[in-house]
Amino acid sequence: MSAQSLRTVAASAALVLLACAASPPAVAAKPRAAAPNARQEAAPMFSAERQTEHRGEHDDLLSAGLGLDGLRAMVPPAFADAAHPTAAELRRRALWANWRGIADLAPGGGYGELYGSLARVQGREFSAFASLPGAHQPHRVLVQVPDEFDAKKRCLVVSASSGSRGIYGSIAVAGAWGLPKGCAVAYTDKGAGTDYFDFDAGIGVRADGTTGPVAEGGLAFTPDASEREASKGVAFKHAHSRDNPEADWGRHVRQAAQFGLRSLDRAFPKQAPFTFANTRVIAVGISNGGGAVLRAAELGDEDGSANGWLDAVVAGEPNVYVEGARPLYDYTTEAALLMPCALLHKPLGAMPVAPISGDSAESFCTYAAALGLLGDAARQASTEVRAQAAYERMRGNGWSDDALRAGALSVNFDLWRAVAATYASAYGRFSAAQQPRTRSPDQPWVRYVYSAGQVAPGAPISERAASEAERAAWWSDASGIPPGAGVYLFGPNAAQPEQRLAPLAGLRELWNGEALGEQQPERGLALAAAQQRVRKGIEATRAAAPRKDLPIVVVHGLDDGLIPPAFSSAPYVAMAREAGAQVRYWQVRNVQHFDAFLGLPALSARYLPLLPYVYEALDRVDAHLDRDQPLPADALIQTTPRAQGQALKAADLAIPR
User: Fold this and answer.
1) Residue of 63, 127, 164, 287 marked catalytic
2) What angle do CA 31, 32, 33 make, to 5 degrees?
């Protein structure tokens, strides 16, 4: 892939002591048995705790005072000193970046009019590093407590960041719904996030988002000494923590909820203690965050009892893997190799964006055919025949036409390679690739390096050390998976197309355990060992059935081309129901994975946003808990795309009532 395509991704794609006080006031009984206070069972480890206040004309919890107009600005909030931004400046910019990375805020898109809220909510934030037993690195937790907290309702919304985003990566999902309703909102970055580490400078990210050297301590992510000595470039926590954080997503969410109760005790000591027995807890998330809250749904209390700590769950477009389904790594590595070719199959029709064409697209067809991935007949066939073979192979493996068409977005933005490289390192618990790029067992099978880039006219981008100003903005600006925010993904140097595409085959080999292309017996044992590590990591992420009496609503767009529902939501719902769980499933037509892309006119005329359905599902489970209203029924929602240039209307959404 070209360096220019990587730059496109960055532009387009895409956070104490307990107070003792009088007995709490009487509250409505929760529909479960009171459980012991989880903080007394096995107190989670919290460190670097902070408390900040967000009030006044130029600050608040939801947007740091930017409001809808400020979030719509095309240029991020500026730093007074680009190399040394303050914690407040970083927070404001992180909120700007995460709102724009998740929600469609464009005029006419309906946000703040048909659905969602950016009302000014004043209050306090409590944050910390949280550590799971045995983990190498902490995850971030943050709790927003509005001044107008509803002390009678005692509501806590808990969420995990979408994708691999930082601690504010669910602000548009959980914060926008919970804070205006008087609920506190707890977040976790679930062991991923934007706490990048610069090997060249020996500098990482502190608790407040500012950067600092290893020698000072207190960093959110610190690779071990041997890695720091041997490596260059940039490491990021999702890929390089060596914790396989996805395996613990549910525990991250539960720990965030525990920190939420701890923070409420500090915020309202006269009403303490806040416990899972007397505080309503609703979990919500989308994408990876949706998978995280479903993993949380299978957990009991930390003492090992079956008593529930959650009251309801809403999961949007969840990345969740159940036995018998295709995990993310399988279909991502398949898409990285075959989808660019399959999209040339003309009967697929018009794409939301033009698929890559010319030599670039043909090179994928040629390479896949040479590897034998398209069958013997395709080896000497035309590009048209090869495209049909790639299309039929993907259709046979469960991809729908709608998912393939929307997948063109991920092809054009080089997301398949970026995701596959990250998850291979995470699942295999590999260290960051070192230089020189060795083949030690702890090195990734495909030796990608992450680094700042030297841009020169007419020349490919090359690796270089990051500047102080670039490094200072990573925490606020990055999405958690490079490329983006000035960090690039560099593969082995190669001149020919087949050499440039070979790393994609290497990533696929880690799934199927078979060498693609030319057989090299000496690689067999090394590949088997690397594949075993990756497969073990994937198996550790497999979801189990949720608690039977827990209300769950799963919402998924049927045009999702990044996490197709056929591989995620549909098999999860089937598994959960077979186990006796009460799960409701909304399938929404004309909705793909990225609401934030709907600001592009061609996409807004074709697709609708997912967030309105997530908010509605939250309203419905809240009404169920408040007033014993029935949970929503399953629904196949027939939406109407708006005409290009027209504003979104309520009737277009066809939200079930």
Assistant:
1) 287
2) 140
